[in-house]
Amino acid sequence: MIERRPVANAFGHLMLVAMIVIVAFPIYLAVIAASHTIQDVSQTPMPLLPGAELLENTARALFDGPQLVGVSGSTPAIVLMMNSLIMAISIAVGKIIISLLSAFAIVYFRFPLKNFFFWMIFITLMLPVEVRIIPTYKIVADLGLLDTYTGLVLPLIASATATFLFRQFFMTVPDELVEAARIDGAGPMRFFFDILVPLTRTSIAAMFVIQFIYGWNQYLWPLLIASDYKYQTIVLAIGRLIRAPDAFYEWPVIMGMAVLALLPPVLVVVLMQRWFVKGLVETEK
Amino acid sequence: MAKVTLKGVKKNYGPVKAIHGVDMEIADGEFIVIVGPSGCGKSTLLRMVAGLEAITEGQIVIGDRVVNDIEPADRDIAMVFQNYALYPHMSVYQNMSYGLRIRGMDKADIEKRVQRAAEILQLQPYLQRKPRELSGGQRQRVAMGRAIVREPSVFLFDEPLSNLDAKLRVQMRLEIKRLHQQLGVTSIYVTHDQVEAMTLADRLVVMNQGRADQIGTPGDVYNHPATTYVGGFIGSPAMNFVKCRIDAGKAVLDDGVTLALPGGWTAPAGSYTLGIRPETLRIARPEETPDLHLDVDVAEELGADTLLHGKIGGQDVVARVPSNAGFHDKSRPGLMVDISRAHLFDNESGLRVAV
Amino acid sequence: MEKRVVFQNRYLPYLLIAPQIAITIIFFFWPASQAVVQSVLREDAFGTRSYFVGLENFIALFEDEYYLNSFKITALFSTLVTTIGLSLSLLLAVTADRLVRGTTAYKTLLIWPYAVAPAVAGALWGFVFLPGPGIFAWLLLQAGVDWNFHLNGDQAMFVVVVAATWKQISYNFLFFLAGLQSIPKSLIEAAAIDGAGPIRRFWTVVFPLLSPTLFFLVVVNVVYAFFETFGVIHSLTRGGPAKSTEILVYKVWYDGFEAQDLGGSAAQSVILMVIVIALTVVQFRYIERKVHY
Fold first, then answer.
1. Strand locations in C163-252, DSSP E?
2. Nearest Cβ partner of A199 from B84, B88, B146?
3. Span B318-329, mean pLDDT?
4. pTM above threshold 0.90
5. pLDDT, tens digit, for every residue of B251-303?
6. Is the dihedral of CA B253, B257, B258, B261 positive or negative?
7. Of B49, B190, B118, B143, which is closest to residue A177 (Cα–Cα)?
8. What pairs with residue B203 in β-bridges?
9. CA distances from B46 to B9, B186, B348, C131, C173 (A)
10. Secondary structure (3-state) at B188
11. Which strands form B295-301's sheet, in the order they lie side by side?
12. What is the mean pLDDT of the segment spanning A178-189?
């Protein structure tokens, strides 16, 4: 920068720090709530400093679940998180696999109807689950996939975003590599597995982060598909518990669960920040 | 090892004709350089030999086989690419052995071949490195190593040195030449660099807009260019072309300069283009009557030589003279033309006229 | 764009693309076409058979006070989320970009809300504003505000906007920062040499160069507010109180699943599809333009 103004700089740092504090505040509060007994949390206002019950409340959230009469009974968070994990990983991996394959077909082959297929995939960008809820639900119901992992995952793994990202990347792979591979005697699938996929690993990592978060954070879809508690995800459980009429009695445990619900995707983003940022920015090119 | 024959090879991209028909016989063990500016079709021709481009018309024969419909991997060739095309995620060893592994060759045999190639190219210390950890010259050598381990009957080189800096290019040029002497494998080498072409080639193919203007030894091409194009392309600085009329044993340039022709010239009277290489112009000695005077615009001092740029008969001309002759900008030296080393071309077709 | 080099194979490409296409047809095109079909049908009282009603479902929708209300709410909600979110994150990005040190650290500390599910974001902010234990609720009460977002529609809107914006700030911030960092420093230096002060430089040099990013983010944020905030609404307000936060996506779900009005919900789906397609076309136009420039 051109001007060096210590005051302006200090002000800038101050503003950013303030913003970070504001952004982190609700989570801080959730952790605080999870660290107190229900009696402490019920004060008006609740305490702002951590209490001693964090481990106990978290353990209760993980292994017992909140004891509520109304809504979802007491599904332990560990079960819910396992479901979320299965859903998130299956969606991410599924999307990556079918998108790699279709991007490979689109970039490295010429065949009749190619453009037609390409546009077909492109159009799915325009149709989020939210706008075609009922008919999609009906299909899944007709296929007998309600309350199954397949029903939770399969309809969400078609991905125009991932296909385009991989297509974009494949276009930048030098033609000479294909030619060298052909001279070396590698057929298309050999080239795909031996050369193209290893080269794409950064994009694959980026896509994995983004799609993992997408899968973990699904809400509406599990709300429709998983009526059986065995298949509910932790995010869905939070949305239900928070509005339960008797949630009041279990705030510490529910807030502990909320922290558990956001921890895995946040960790993935922070730990894989480099790929995450790359993935975000590149899918929007 | 094998000879390679091209018979009337043509390439069209839709209505666009990229190669107009090339015929060539390449002898076993010969080093052929295809040279020309970008877009002349030289790479296309090479890629057709490799099997990376379909052949529109004609035949390519490697050894005794017509290879038109044979996959690149089965043509018994190996290719070195301009950008090396090394697999970035594989080590040098894996890069070199990949093709052999695909062929299902025995591990011990692969090891033997890779080690031998690495020895020839002095790559042993780098076998476990990734391409990105290597310098440009080393990458180049790996690309050649990948070709060598295949033990093909033909090597194809597609501008292999153009990504290297000038100094390294000279060094690698020598290495390629040595390698060829050592292995004796038929090689086809594409470049736009005429120095590379002249120094490496047993025979040159000068390509011009999809045609092979001339095929011949470097000396042949330099001393007897078949067209004005070849004359202008080979040699640096480029050959001077001046329009002239030939009549009664004399060549008359536009501004009235008259040059006496050597006795043997039998070209019929008429208009021609005279090709004079800059090095066949020399400063007239004091006792000589100069053939012509050059109004020097700019004198480029190169060290040993000086290039004098000026105009004769309204046409740009360069003369290469020793620097110690002491001519500078705006001087007007008298020059002698070594007419016996000049070339005569048809004005219309640009073809060489026999004299 | 086409590759110069391709593989020759008759069947393989179809095999490769088949899984993607199969899922797309089964779970995208078929349901979408079903939505269109259902939007012109109505079931009889017993739900046993349905008959063709033309555009009646649509007409009924646009005569439905609640639906029109839902439109207005969605417009207000998405305008608030987009403008507040973009202004705040632009301010933050410009500030972070100005600073020589710490930019990367700030980036790390600001991006993680992106990873929080909308429903969880709703739960967290719901707790902060919860009458009783909620700190902000208490502060507002102390300030004399009669605070209870479960009862007051405006207050409910305020909370969902806060939660939805909070989640989106990190995304906007990342893109603004990337946009700012891609502006060549030499341009700004040239403007400084021309005598433009920092504020003038921002509006005459930086902002115009940032406008493609801004445009892109406006579209993304509108799409986000329209379609991806179901979780926020569902976990915070269930569309209430008195439908004061019932955005379109929430209403589609509610009418279809809770009120079992299939035809009406399908007609709403069709309208939503038209909106998404319009937004996508706008965005695509813009991408096309960017490519041409």
1. none
2. B88
3. 84
4. no
5. 888 777 888 887 777 778 888 898 999 999 888 888 888 888 888 889 898 88
6. negative
7. B143
8. B32
9. 11, 13, 30, 79, 51
10. strand
11. B295-301, B305-312, B315-322
12. 91
Contact A179 B71 (CB under 8 A): no
Here the tokens at position B23 are 């015929």
Task: Give the whole-angstrom CA distance, residue C111 versus residue C167.
Answer: 9
Q: Indicate the helix (H) or strand (E) that contains B222.
A: helix B218-223
Residue C1: is it exposed, middle or buried by C-beta count within 10 angstroms (0-12/13-18/19+)? exposed
- From the CA of A265, how many Å to the nearest CA of chain C? 5
Contact C44, C54 (CB under 8 A): no
What backbone phi and psi angles, to 5 degrees, belong to C139? Answer: -60, -45
Contacts of B79 in chain A (CB under 8 A): 179-180, 183
Tell me, what amino acid is at B33? Answer: V
Nearest CA-CA partner of A85 in A259, A232, A269, A271: A232
**Rounded Cα–Cα distance for residues B35 and B53 (Å):** 19
Sign of CA dihedral C71, C76, C80, C83: positive
B196 CB-near residues (< 8 Å, 6+ apart): B33, B35, B161, B169, B173
C-alpha C105: how far from chain center: 27
Chains touching chain A, criterion 3+ CB pairs below 8 Å:
B, C
**How many residues in total does chain A contain?**
285
Which of C1, C24, C43, C120 has the most A C-beta neighbours within 10 Å, making it the best mutation to test the interface with A? C120
Q: Is the ipTM of this complex over 0.95?
A: no
Q: Which residues of chain A have a CB within 8 Å of the CB of C114?
A: 213, 269
Structure token pair of residue B190: 């594409």
In angstroms, the Cα distances linking B262 to B259, B267, B271, B341, C37 are 9, 11, 18, 10, 94
* Distance between first and last Cα of chain A: 28
**A173: Cα within 13 Å, side-chain hemisphere:** 32
What CA–CA distance (Å, rounded) separates A128 from A255? Answer: 30
Tokens 């030619």 belong to A179
Residue C49 and residue C46: Cα distance in Å, rounded? 8
Query: What secondary structure letter does DSSP report for B40?
Result: S
Strands across the sheet containing B258-260: B258-260, B250-253, B240-247, B270-276, B343-346
> Is the pLDDT reported for residue B180 higher than 90?
yes
Res. C198 pLDDT band, cuts 50 70 90: confident
- pLDDT in the model for residue A285: 47
Strand partners, B12: B17
